[in-house]
Amino acid sequence: MSPETWLPVAxxxxxxxxxxxxxxxxxxxLGLGILAPFAEDEHQLDHMMNTAAPIWDGNETWxxxxxxxxxxxxxxxxxxxxxxxYLPVLLMLIALVFRGVAFEFRFKAVRAKPxxxxxxxxxxxxxAFAQGVILGALVEGMPLxxxxxxxxxxxxxxxxxMLTGVAVLFGYALLGATWLVLKTEGRMQLVARTLxxxxxxxxxxxxxxxxxxxxxxxxxxxxxxFDGGNFWWLAPVPLLALANAFALWRAVMxxxxxxxxxxxxxxxxxxxxxxxxxxxxxxxVPPSLTIWEASSPPSSQGFVMVGLVVLLPAILGxxxxxxxxxxGKIAADAGYH
Length: 337
Prior knowledge:
Blueprint lengths: L2 H33 L6 H9 L9 H14 L1 H10 L1 H23 L4 H28 L3 E2 L2 E2 L9 H25 L2 H28 L5 H8 L3 H5 L1 H18 L5 H22 L2 E3 L3 E2 H4 L3 H28 L12
Antiparallel strand pairs: 1-2, 3-4
Helix pairs in contact: 1-3, 1-6, 1-7, 1-12, 1-14, 3-4, 5-6, 6-7, 7-8, 7-12, 8-11, 11-12
């Protein structure tokens, strides 16, 4: 197999892995911000934020990896995505910056503490919604003519992208709630468990709605799932998602295994992501731009791949180390400086 064939596939896998890692790891931190309005007082919000304080900023590395990988390996797709999704991408970046500033400033503020708490919540909500809109717009496809985007500044706006925006918002809230179940005890954990149960139902409903809508977006997507016996090859993904949803519901209804709901929620997100990738493959910008058409020269992809071979294990290593160091429950009186 020639490098022109397998290098784009390898880079597509790397970018997909980076995006998935970002969604899983930063998703629960954004979820904490989304759930911030449900904190009973400022001390409880302190407790919520302290569960992620030592590790939250390292999660942004995965977003940088995905964006840089897209630019290096698929520059044509990078240009099209930024041209088409300039407004939601800008909203996401501003919201992430605002969220980060609020995260740091709130711990130092005295009189302005409620303001920064509200900023943390708003920044998290806007970032989550923008990420869902970007995802929905990419999956739905972009109007292209001779390889150029022709959809206008608001071509990304559609009922499906709005649906995925809200779905990701609730999904991150579920990640945040199950993270709190894992990392806290007492009153904080009770509040998290109370929030987790309805969130599971809402997220499963959104997953079902998005999955049902997906094949009807484009005839190619319908063919991918149902033509030529493809459904029997792809059926394990939705079946595993259903089994995962059932196991997640049982886990949140039982007390005692604090890690299980969070791990099952991570698996649910991973299965949903796999279903979306299978639906659009081999297009990196649906409905017409494939990974091979959008790829940079093999020499460029191979050169950057050498650096990735060194960089990716380092990122995985310090991520695993940081989570290991800060494992366990976070007490309500724990401090962050």
